[in-house]
Amino acid sequence: MTAKSEHPYPLTPEVFAALEVTKRGCDELLVEVDWIQKLARSQATGVPLRIKLGLDPTAPDIHLGHTVVLNKLRQLQDLGHTVIFLIGDFTSMIGDPSGRNATRPPLTAEAIAINAQTYYQQASMMLDPAKTEVRYNSEWCDPLGARGMIQLAAKYTVAQMLERDDFTKRYRSGIPISVHEFLYPLMQGYDSVALKSDLEIGGTDQKFNLLVGRELQREFDQEPQCILTMPLLVGLDGVEKMSKSKGNYIGISEPASDMFGKLMSISDDLMWDYYTLLSFRPMAEIDLMKQEVAAGRNPRDCKVMLGQEIVSRFHSEAAAEKALEDFNHRAKGGIPEDIPEISLEGAPMGIANFLKVAGLSPSTSEANRNIEQNGVKIDGVTIADKQLKIEAGTYVVQVGKRRFAKVTLG
């Protein structure tokens, strides 16, 4: 009698290649041995694994930080697995408390519907629609009703909830925690039960919520999902995570030249994180580039390649080439082609208000900061006087390295 194998499915080289793809750039894979077995089973049986990503459409636009998990989903789709793009229309009405020190205001159903549509349209630029299920968690959350919600809540304790860092900090600091906030991780976990997910992906700030799904699947006698957490992409400032509220983001719907210019502005060190998390190039190729830079190659060459790859993905190769031409032209002090033309009335106009009304600065205070930093040029001349009055006429105005406009003031 032979001993029972620890792995009932063969661990082939393809399984370990798939494991390598899964782990590329990830922060944590829980539990790796379980994931290996799921991959082996899938390969042996031909049944795709179910990969879940839950998104609350709290904002309609996607930036490159959001694409870190979307890229990972695409990599797993390319291995043959099914992605479940779960839109949290029910959980959005609760509001995710992850990483917050205050209750997040819930969204209206109308705002959720609009945001969700825009979000998926943008995500489809990265995902394979043929291998993507789009689901809304109101499908199974609404029918639960009050009785079902109470029965679900009985499967998780308050002590377990308070193991979560942000809840613990708020509790100890005397900052209110509403009871409905405990329902958020519970409902997110129930999504995994409803979808029978094999793997759930999220940012590192979502780890607690993902673990709740694993525990609830056990409670419902399902095979527990594995968990893959991805790092939060650092923004253009090189310090904080990429965020619209911090103004350090690159939106995937931005003009090609703006996107390319922002990518060229990141530090040489940060570039390698962007390569790992955003590029589709093999890691062996990226590692070789690192060695070449260490040996003296100009890192700008590598940054250009990264910028071209990302811009091509969201625009086209032709747009990426044009963005590079514009960038090089600006770097030599030139003015890009096709700059917007703006007509204003109200001459003479103070310089700060002029920049604000022309849409070149978000506010007069920001315009004054741009002037103080020698970041404003009119017809190629740097402006230093914050009290300057702009007379009637037509001017080529530049703010910073990337904002240009031809402004006619009447």
Automatic annotation (TrEMBL):
It is found in: Cytoplasm. Its EC number is 6.1.1.1. InterPro entries: aa-tRNA-synth_I_CS, aa-tRNA-synth_Ic, FHA_dom, Rossmann-like_a/b/a_fold, S4_RNA-bd, S4_RNA-bd_sf, Tyr-tRNA-ligase, Tyr-tRNA-ligase_bac-type. A motif ('KMSKS' region) lies at residues 241-245. GO terms for cellular component: cytosol. Keywords: Aminoacyl-tRNA synthetase, ATP-binding, Cytoplasm, Ligase, Nucleotide-binding, Protein biosynthesis, RNA-binding. SMART domains: S4. Its main location: cytoplasm. GO terms for biological process: tyrosyl-tRNA aminoacylation. PROSITE patterns: AA_TRNA_LIGASE_I, FHA_DOMAIN, S4. One of its GO terms (molecular function) is RNA binding. A motif ('HIGH' region) lies at residues 57-66. It catalyses: tRNA(Tyr) + L-tyrosine + ATP = L-tyrosyl-tRNA(Tyr) + AMP + diphosphate + H(+). It is an enzyme of class 6 (ligase). The keyword Ribonucleoprotein does not apply. It comes from the Bacteria. Residues 293-317 form the FHA domain. Belongs to the class-I aminoacyl-tRNA synthetase family. TyrS type 2 subfamily. Catalyzes the attachment of tyrosine to tRNA(Tyr) in a two-step reaction: tyrosine is first activated by ATP to form Tyr-AMP and then transferred to the acceptor end of tRNA(Tyr). Homodimer. This is Tyrosine--tRNA ligase. It comes from Polynucleobacter meluiroseus.
